[in-house]
Design brief:
single chain; alpha/beta; Urease, subunit C, domain 1; six-stranded mixed β-sheet; binds zinc ion
Amino acid sequence: MSKVLIIADRVVAGPAEHLIADGAVLVDSGVVVAVGAAAELDVSVDAQVPRLRCHGATVLPGMADCHVHLAFDAGPDIVGAVVDTESSELSTAMADRARLMLAAGVTTVRDLGDRDGLTVALRDSIRSGAVTGPRILAATTPLTSRGGHCGFLGGEVTTDDAIRAQIARNAEAGADLIKVMASGGALTPGGPRMWEPQFTAAQLRLIVREAARHGLDVAAHAHGTETIGQCVDAGVRTIEHCSWRTAEGIVYDSAITGRIVGHDVAVCRCVSGDWELFLKQMGSERAQQMAEVIQEMRGAGVRFIAGTDAGVPGARFGDYVGMLEFFASLGFRNAEILDMATVNAAHALGLRDTGVVAPGMRADLVVVDGNPLTELDALRRVRYVFAAGRLAVRPDNG
Ligand SMILES: [Zn+2]
């Protein structure tokens, strides 16, 4: 792979507050080999190396969407769509969705529930270079209870032996992590309510232990306050949604948040790009309550990571920035938001080679017009995306 020297008005080296004005990034064979002042690198780097001069632009680390479902089509009937689509057709659609995300500057995608492990095949063809796309981490089949949330994906387990067997099957299929639907959800007709637990505390501990035996972390879908606490105590790596629901409405528990922070559990507070509509449907009182809880968690030092739940009804692929704008609407600083999308996400996902722009890191890079630290909207003006050093998006091919 050839070398390139990217020169821009600024480089967000990451964390986002670490900014190099008039910076440059030297990429060689898919890896960042130097980051620094453009004036110095322009002189020191061999004149034969091509320069990509990006006036008015910012280079930042490739972003991560920590919660997507590539097998879902974001339409009104995803269950029908995912169950009734043939594997080859579904695989093609998944590759298209992955490309949409890459075009939005997302170079890492964590898929938290697919059908038949199709994401693993896509991951591998992207990794081999046969297909252009973001790096994928695949959870394959999510564990759920009998008749539980997303049971249509085939991961219903009731006994301890069934839990062990499903985790072994996922590991065998090439899963990068284990996903458990620890509480109910909104997608599955007749399933448990969102606040209701789908597993016991002992089962959650078993899931984490078994996953660890296969070298895998656990991401837990958890809406219910009780379930969130049990997941944290069981040792999951990330809590998905974390909406603090009970039969009586939102009941926030700051003691659980203390344990979330203490155990370095990351929270993926999934929000689609369409969040304004979602808030409207929620009603202003509940929306206000939800905002306050997120602020409390932020104040307590929770490590938030960025995720869209793309694929579920209304959560379109490629509207990644819309999700980030939700956090801006709550008063998060742009630097904090960029960290959720980059360095914090990489940490939570166990990826040590992405999330910041530094020598030795994978060249997962996004070049945008303007400065996303002062105007988040700049992230919508993607000029180039490099995925592991490969120029995957450029203006002439959209
Ligand atoms: Zn999801």
